[in-house]
Predict the structure.
Amino acid sequence: MSRAARVIVEGVSKRYSLSSTRGKLHSLKGALLHGELWRRRQEQGGFLALKDVSFTLETGETLAVIGPNGSGKSTLLKLVAGILKPTSGTVTVRGRLTALIELGAGFHPEISGWDNAIINGMLLGLSRREIEAKLPEIFAFARLENFAHEPVKTYSSGMFVRLGFAVATAVEPDILIVDEVLAVGDELFAHKALDRVAELQRRGCSVLLVTHDLALAEKLAHRGLYLNRGEVVFSGPAPAAVARYRADVASTEAGEAPSTARGKRWGNREVELTSVELVDTEGRPVQVLRSGEPGAIRLAYKVHVPKEDFVFGVAIHRADGTHVFGTNTHLDGLQPESLDGEGSISILFPSLELAPGRYRVDAAVHSVAGLAYDYACEVLEFLITAPVPWPGCYAPRHRWLPAGPKFARLQP
Amino acid sequence: MAEPGSGLFFSLYRKRALVWVLVGRELAARYRGTLFGYLWSLLNPLLLLSVYTVVFTLVIPARVASNAPYPLFLFAGLLPWVFFTGALLDAAVVLPDNGPLLKKVMVEPEVFPAVTVLSHAVHHLLALPVLVVGVAMAAVGLGHPFPWTVVLLPMVLVFWLATVFGLSLGVAALAVHFRDLKDLLHNVFTLWFFLTPIVYTPEAVPAGVLRQLVLANPMTPLVSAYRSLAVEGTFPPPATWAWCALVAGVSLVVGCWVFGRLREGLAEAV
């Protein structure tokens, strides 16, 4: 795919100086004489919020940044937004960027919502004429038509964030940065907000999303970036990133140290996946299938510590991160009893109705709570062929039934 | 050294529409909910001038070696001084006040001191009609010649604006790191006020160290030039203009340089 990168983050680290250790007079003199006061001092101490983080965000792609509190997510967003400068490394941004970091930041309480919206839009980079043309739409979206000319100090907190959200998304950004603000306002508005983000996604807007709502991250994002203590633990398909994060949380809850693996495979290996294969109806491993043919994914395992709590799962996604399908034995209602020795489990698709293209498979065995025994991300890749290059992911059996239109030749 | 400064002006030029909208907001917010609205900009100086007139003609008849009546002499010194101190004191808090914006939205920090200075400048311009009416009344009532040089006032206002803007940039950036700068400024301004020939003329100061001090004060040429044009009806000598240009130039260069040096760290420090 020939998609242009919108955001390129390369080897970025960010160190915060601790203000208590700052020698004030010394820093004034240093600031004026040597210029780069903060950077120079930062090398000596302070708090390293991000360590050597790299990623790219392509046009139309959504990247979810997940991780526990204090993992550097917000710092990363602010670096991309240009609010903070990296201590080392580079951040390249191509296109108009809007950050939904604090909605309604800069609203002046004494001024009407209407005038504040104009100023906010201009702060976000629109010209006065552009923002004025959008104002009716903005106030309709925020359901504030009747309050447009009241000073915002009379607004409720919900009205405040609704207006902030409406303005920020009305500027039609190329890159949207969202920090935990999609759950703003009431239920109705939260839905509208999500719809609005989805609409921007469809129009090719790249989205960088920070959220603790892992279900939302899986739903909205193509890819996930899992940060912990300022370091990238995992970067890959969103469901896998979420699974990795859940596995680490489960490990911590179970009193184990979270996996230190940095690659695409993690878990405590008490149960090990020895192979993951795509097989045909005869049980022979294949790399290529025709769309609509039957196929199965076979997971072979070896047990090192016998288990009574286990779940096998697979996820299929496109090379660009688009989530196609995912399920596990727990979801499908299989109650685990015991697992020991060696063996295999297959998930059979009587008709693999996938559109032609390359697909990747994540396979996992973990506890019901999400504690990973073995999680292998992108462990298998296969190709689906079809006589027609249908777009998308899903290629169900179908036929046209013309009642009226005449075609030279009917389908066989 | 010129590089951070020119970048600053370029970025302000690009953001000029935003700057003006913010100036408008600043002025609208100031008078919102008041009965007289923008009239306050006229009423405040008018009241001040009336009080001076009563006090310094009836209570303490004051005289200075100037061809303008004392209340107008004082008023013409105070108006730009209030612009100067008001803008600088506001500049000392403008970045912390707009901290949420600096931290959460990508906005060039130089926008805020520029808005502060411009809104004070607009405020100052709104008070000028009172001054003009004052000198006109003195001309009609007391037979003083009307100072036609008042039409040349924009010449000196340019230097005032440059000086105030330069110093505001420096103060705004430094105040982020040194929060007590505002308190310091308050005290400095009290002393500075009496070192500046606002209530007196430089000639009234006994020759010696004190007069040297008053003459060396960078605000002296600015106040003298302003007052010459506004109420005395004389064109300041070239030396005064040169002084004004030097003060304005140095303020701008130093202010831009300080701001440019500290600019990157502002969003983190506020």
Observations:
- The radius of gyration of chain A is 25 Å.
